[in-house]
Specification:
By secondary structure, the protein is mainly β. It is built from two helices and 16 strands. It folds into two domains: 6-89, Beta Barrel (Lipocalin); 100-208, Lipocalin (Beta Barrel). It has helices at 49-61, 168-180; strands at residues 6-9, 14-18, 23-31, 34-42, 64-71, 74-78, 85-89, 100-108, 111-113, 124-127, 132-136, 141-149, 152-161, 183-190, 193-197, 202-208. Strand 8 (100-108) and strand 9 (111-113) form a beta hairpin. The chain is elongated. The mean pLDDT is 91.
Amino acid sequence: APVDARVAFGKDGRVTGSGGCNTFNATVTVKGDTVTASPGQMTEIACSDDRMRFEKQLVEAFSGELKGTLRNDTLTLTSPDGRNVLALTAERPAPLRGTAWKVDGLRSGQTASSLPAGSEGKARIVLGEDGKVTGNLGCNNFSATARTDGTTLTVEGPAATTRMMCTGPQMQLETKLYALLDGPLTYRVDHRTLTLTDASGEGLTATAEPAGRA
């Protein structure tokens, strides 16, 4: 499974999650050991074939009446015919600071989109405990200072950057991220996904990388 795949259960019966590419929501009801999942909305971002295959399998497995078994930190959901088995392991949310956040999507209002083709995999943001924010914009490394107040992250830009020239898609992404990371942003951490949005609704999504890569 992709490292950023997740399913989060709310106390109100609502479920949010990600297949490692698209995000989705659903509702669940629980009666005894029977969990009934009703799929809701899902974004429609095109990703790599392996992620799309996993995402399809996840959605199929998390649908309808399922038998739930909880053992230690693992919830196993099994379809009545036993063909679909979904194992979910509890994991702590990633902290805002000290985590290497890999940029994997862009937002414009309510619309989510993938990164420009050819720019994936390099852009990262790390918020340090010392108030510094560093990382890569898709081509060049950058550094700036940042402070938080409630759900607002203010990057005191413009950021200092290296001066490499890269391919068109990488520079396209860099231009967008450079402009975004300058001023106040609303931030939200949903388990291992970080969303940053400016006042106009432009923003990004990023996924926490495994420990040790920060």
